[in-house]
Design brief:
The chain has 424 residues and is α+β, with helices and mostly antiparallel strands. It contains four helices and 33 strands. Strands 2, 5, 6, 7, 10, 11 and 12 form a seven-stranded mixed β-sheet that branches. Strands 21, 23, 24, 26, 27 and 28 form a six-stranded mixed β-sheet that branches. Strands 16-15-18-19 form a four-stranded antiparallel β-sheet, with no helix packed on it. Strand 15 and strand 16 form a beta hairpin. The longest helix is centred in the C-terminal third of the chain and has 31 residues. The relative contact order is 0.07.
């Protein structure tokens, strides 16, 4: 019997305790200390209890200073105009959790919850609260050779640190260079660095936008490179013209000193220092080069050859051009005159000055009418008339000038062919 009573007591005990708890005012903050990265969001978990015969009419969240609420509540269930960064994600039963979006540094502090029931004395705040800590992501820089100037060929490790993780690297990170995403993971490894690695680096939480860390600027230094010489206006100019040589180079830090050299022989054994400025004005032609130097080293440009054309060379060139043009003009004129004054041959003149005439000869006893013979025998007479129109020479014209009368001579040759008699 006693054993049965004991079993009944242990069975009713949880029910009794539950009834006591259900009729007890209680507020629980599940995390006394809450940590959040600046720009992220954070949830402050909370639970509250009240007697069963009560109903909640109002609940509020506030930030406490000097153990008292100061100013207005950051969240009030009866107010419609509250900041959207603070969101109540609980209910009216037991969950009273608060979510803060886009956490800022001035959000740090102690937060408490308060609720009011329908009874006159139904107000409960409880003790304690949750304290919010707002931190920034940090970047730790590790160099094998210690903290010194970063040069080409060096290595470097960048580690993104969220102090809210303590020693547990549970956060997921992403890396940015000059604002562009380049890698995921807590550590960024940079090896055999060059000038392309220079820039601004930052890390952020992968799951929270706007949680970017402070910027780490990396400046990779290097000796002069791509050293070259440009020439204005050209590498070949007339005597008396100005020519300018310009030395350019890429270096970090910038070039500290430029040096100009002139080479006096092809073996590069005889070289003279002729200037120490970016621009150089050579007094004469020859082979020149420049050297750029900073604290990490120096580099020479390639050799440029400057040619200055003297007056005699220019004069000879002009004379040759003029002579060539003159010869061409003379040849053209001679050809034209030759074509104009070439005399015609005798055969051509005879052909042009010859007329052919023929007569129809009739017998004397026949009458003629209209160049036709009526009946009788007709015979054809052929003749050739030559007109002598040859051009006279100057001597002939002078001799003819003493002659009073000049007569043209007409030569005529007649040929009478044999005509066979006509037989009736």
């Amino acid at each position: 019997m006693r054993i049965e009573n004991r079993n009944l007591t242990w069975t009713l005990m949880p029910l009794f305790l539950a009834g006591v708890l259900c009729n007890t005012w209680r507020l629980e903050y599940h995390q006394q200390h809450v940590c959040a990265v600046n720009g992220s969001y954070v949830v402050i978990p909370c639970s509250f209890y009240y007697p069963d015969n009560h109903s909640v009419k109002k609940f509020m969240w506030g930030r406490v200073k000097s153990h008292h609420f100061k100013g207005r509540y950051i969240y009030d269930s009866n107010l419609s105009k509250v900041t959207t960064r603070f969101q109540y994600i609980g209910d009216e039963n037991h969950n009273c959790s608060l979510k803060i979006h886009k956490v800022e540094h001035h959000d740090a502090g102690k937060y408490t919850f308060r609720f009011i029931t329908n009874f006159k004395d139904g107000k409960w705040t409880g003790k304690g609260g949750s304290t919010l800590k707002v931190v920034d992501l940090n970047i730790s820089v590790t160099q094998p050779d210690g903290n010194r100037t970063t040069k080409e060929g060096d290595s470097m490790n960048l580690t993104c640190i969220n102090v809210c993780d303590h020693d547990n690297l549970s956060s997921a990170f992403i890396w940015f260079k000059n604002g562009e995403l380049i890698k995921e993971g807590p550590v960024l490894y940079l090896s055999n660095m060059s000038s392309t690695n220079s820039g601004n680096y930052a890390c952020s939480l992968k799951t929270h936008t706007g949680t970017t860390s402070g910027v780490i600027h990396i400046d990779v230094e290097y000796a002069p490179k791509n050293t070259s010489v440009s020439v204005r206006p050209s590498m070949e100019v007339d005597v008396g013209s100005n020519i300018t040589l310009i030395c350019s180079s890429h270096a970090n830090p910038p070039v500290e000193n430029y040096t100009w050299f002139k080479i006096y022989d092809d073996d590069d054994d005889d070289i003279m220092d002729v200037g120490h400025r970016t621009e150089f004005l050579p007094a004469d032609g020859g082979q020149y080069l420049c050297s750029a130097t900073n604290k990490h080293g120096s580099q020479n440009s390639s050799v440029v050859a400057i040619q200055i054309k003297h007056l005699w060379a220019t004069f000879t060139r002009d004379v040759l051009i003029i002579a060539t043009v003159a010869v061409l003009l003379i040849v053209i004129i001679v050809i034209a005159l030759t074509r104009m004054w070439t005399p015609k041959t005798d055969s051509e003149e005879d052909v042009q000055d010859t007329d052919y005439v023929n007569w129809l000869a009739c017998d004397n006893n026949q009458s003629q009418e209209g160049n036709q013979c009526e009946g009788g025998t007709a015979e054809v007479v052929y003749t050739t008339v030559y007109f002598n129109n040859k051009t006279k020479s100057n001597m002939e014209q002078q001799m003819d000038s003493h002659t009073d009368d000049y007569e043209e001579v007409i030569y005529i040759s007649l040929q009478k062919p044999t005509v066979e008699p006509f037989v009736h």
